[in-house]
Amino acid sequence: MRLAPSSRFFAAAFAAALLTAPGALAAGAEPPFTEPQYLDIPGLGRVPIPLPPGARLFSPRRSPPVELAPERAPLIARDSLEDLIRRLGLADSEEEEGALAQAIGRLWARSGSPTADLLLRRAMAAASLGADSLALDLFDRIVTLEPSWAEALVGRANVRIALGDLDNAERDLDAALRLEPRRFDALGTLGALRERIGASARALEAYRRARALDPRREEWRKAEERLRLEVEGRDI
What we know:
Blueprint: H1 8-19, E1 38-41, E2 45-48, H2 73-78, H3 81-89, H4 94-108, H5 114-128, H6 132-145, H7 150-162, H8 166-179, H9 184-196, H10 200-213, H11 218-232
Helix pairs in contact: 1-4, 1-5, 3-4, 5-6, 6-7, 7-8, 8-9, 9-10, 10-11
């Protein structure tokens, strides 16, 4: 069972990356997937990246990207990560919040290593096809290659959640947040995970930290209010 909606942020960010993956097929295209099914990685050797028999990569159905007013949209492309995170906390609308969160996600999804970025696309493709064990193996390889890349740890945590390995998923999220404490998406996922295992007070803390960075995320606001009543009780 996947954690939704807090993990949907990753799915949206990586679905966009899949659309630009070399050799990806459009929906309904006839040619089979023909890319090499391995990568030669220094220090690791030949890394297999098979897909399930008969599987194809395709453009998933998704909502159109959020667009800002013309005078504001170009600023997002030029802003640094710090500027984007600051603006996220001051967003005037849900539309602006969504556009800023997507822009931040695109920056977080860049490792600086073409090999790691390609492996990440393959891992997300495998996860989207339900091949969670393969996705986990690929994420393990990415973490080995780029141990200080929080994105790989967050991605692996989501796959581990899908596989029911909640303890190791929590460890991955905690490690990612040590590397990048501003990962509001990881905090939201961590809150949902902790709520699922009955750790309400720790879940409340995670949601509050997430909302301090992204206060307009409605599902986190509702979760914080629900857990506040459970943990702290009603005001007298």
